Amino acid sequence: MALNKSMHPRNRYKDKPPDFAYLASKYPDFQQHVHTSLTGRPVVNFKEPEAVRALTCTLLKEDFGLTIQIPLERLIPTVPLRLNYIHWVEDLIDGQKQPRRGIDIGTGASCIYPLLGATMNGWFFLATEVDDICFDYAKKNVEQNNLSDLVKVVKVPQKTLLMDALKEETEIVYDFCMCNPPFFANQLEAKGVNSRNSRRPPPSSVNTGGVTEIMAEGGELEFVKRIIHDSLKLKKRLRWYSCMLGKKCSLAPLKEELRKQGVPKVTHTEFYQGRTMRWALAWSFYDDVTVPSPPSKKRKLEKAQKPLSFSIPEAGLKELQAKASAAGCTGCSSVDSVTALLEKTLAELRVLHKRVPCRKQEQSLFLTAVENTWIHGRQKRREHKRQLRELPRAPQCAGSSSQPSLATAGTPTPSQSQPTLTADSNSQDDNTENQNMSAHESGKEEKKNASGELGQISENVAGGDVDMESSSCAETGQETELKETPTEAPCRQPQSPGGVELFLFKCLLNVMMEESDVVIEMHWVEGQNKDLMNQLRTYLRNTLLKSVAKP
Q1: Which of 286, 304, 317, 520 is most buried, by CB atoms within 10 Å?
Q2: How many helices (H) and strands (E) does the chain have?
């Protein structure tokens, strides 16, 4: 479970993520969904609805003493996110232990907000629900946890929000309302067709919500506007109105709507849970309420500067050192070996990189990615191998029998053995440039590669820039001969990572020892999209770990 330090300070999972191994040993129903990763750590597949449900039910049982049932065809809540919302409501109403009254609009089958609020703080809840299946499950979950005296689950008509739910309770003043509104306006949005940035990776967990739980006319924006309009009629019947949002773009128009309506007290916050992020909006018509400050820019900056990282366990370092040594790495330490293997992979991916000064017993690389070569890597490798099998033998030219062609199918030359230097369907621009390169320089580069050094680093002739690829003269797929002709045009020198004008992103990669493991950190510098750096991190991690994953 990916969590981070930006969770609410009182969230119990902020500094102590769930121990999957311990929970699996204690709860058999959860154990069957726990698997061992390449690093030997227990993991859960969040793409499986059964696994997500088992984790939620296990955490509620272990940490809160709650026993619940959730159907797979309805929304399965994640506990850390719901806790973040509960703790923020505590901040809004200024005190979590006092008797308080709240409303949960659309409580869902789990009835998780009322159950947590009642168990943790003794709050009274009016939980509304429009879906028959969710209503039945919510009521059973309240009853089997003996919380019927604190939580009242009511069935309300479709499209009902606050007005109809409070018709019969004209005297009671509630301290707050909570709502996790349907995020999407239609099926296309729910599938991410027209609502998700194409550069973002797919969601890390499965979506199991029913139609009324994930979709509403106009999406979450119009849904929350309806709550705002109800609040304009109810006003001081509730001290705080609040909603959780799934899209950051919904926040600004809703705040503007509250401003137009003259609502005096408005605030918002952000909920972080690993890759998942949510926003919450709250408003009040009371003058004496304490308004929590919105997230500061400093907090956002701290989150933005947090590096992506992964580690290589001690058990696999010997194998990586042996692999690096066989490939020509002269460094004897684990850090040197891992760095050399990373440089080799980066060269294969055509990611520009150079070593930069760093602390002792560490290695640092400055990376500049100019094209996305790490996605669909397996498919590209298969296509490349197919092309190599179909590549015809190049005829030997008279007078040059002692120098084999690059396309010869005999003993492969060093340049042929490196995937980054061969022509494929994704490198047409490279081939066009490579056709103008000097065969003389190409021959020299091949001799350099034959020495077996990983991530060959050479200085640029002009000003000490670092050559990021092991060979700048790639095979063009044509019948090219190696001729030592001094009159040929010089081979084009690769650019330095810092001198590239058009790029996807730049980052600093640090390799260091942490106790007995090697830790790799990637620090964002600049670029188009941080998700691309995360994708590269995953590729580098999997490339290293698959070498040590042998049983």
Answers
A1: 520
A2: 17, 16
355 vs 511: CA distance, rounded Å: 11
pLDDT in tens, 141-187: 999 999 999 999 999 887 778 887 887 776 789 999 999 887 544 44
Tokens of 262: 């003259």
Q: CB of 240 within 8 A of CB of 251?
A: no
Tokens of 271: 């909920």
The span from the first CA to the last CA of the chain, in angstroms, equals: 25
- Of the candidates 447, 469, 452, 451, which has an alpha carbon nearest to the alpha carbon of residue 460? 469
Q: What whole-number distance in Å separates Cα of residue 450 and Cα of residue 414?
A: 5
Q: Where are the beta strands (DSSP E) in 89-161?
A: 101-105, 124-129, 151-155
Kindly list the distances between the CA atom of residue 471 and the CA atoms of 28, 211, 414, in Å, as whole numbers in the listed order. 54, 55, 9
Per CATH, is 20-305 categorized as 3.40.50.150?
yes
What is the tens place of the pLDDT at every residue in 233-245? 999 999 999 999 9
Residue 525, CA distances (Å) to 134, 207, 218, 383 in order? 46, 33, 38, 33
All residue ranges of the chain with pLDDT < 50 are: 184-196, 198-200, 206, 209-215, 301-302, 398-494, 551
Alpha-carbon Rg for the chain, nearest whole angstrom, is 30
DSSP string for residues in 72-90:
TTS----HHHHHHHHHHHH
In angstroms, rounded to a whole number, what is the distance separating the alpha carbons of residues 296 and 269? 10
Beta strand residue intervals within 478-516, DSSP E = 505-514
**DSSP letters for 156-182:** --TT--STGGGTT-SSPPEEEEEE---
* Per-domain residue ranges of the chain: 20-305, 308-371+503-545
**H-assigned helices in 145-282:** 187-190, 211-214, 219-234, 251-260
Domain 308-371+503-545 in the same topology as domain 20-305: no
Structure tokens at 73: 């065809």
Instruction: Provide the CB-side half-sphere exposure for 2 (13 A, CA).
Output: 14
- The DSSP output letter for 485 is -
For residue 525, the one-letter residue type is V
What tokens were used for 81?
């996110």
What phi and psi values does residue 310 have, to the nearest 5 degrees?
A: -155, 165
Dist. CA 411–CA 413, nearest whole Å: 7
* Residue found under tokens 């750096």: 533
What lies within 8 Å, CB to CB, of 337 at 6+ separation is: 317, 320, 321, 323, 324, 325, 329, 331
Token pair for 247: 């899209």
CATH architecture for the domain at 308-371+503-545: 2-Layer Sandwich (3.30)
Q: What does the alpha-carbon distance between residue 507 and residue 524 come to, in Å, rounded to a whole number? A: 5
The rounded distance, in Å, linking the Cα atoms of 278 and 243 is 11
pTM over 0.90: no
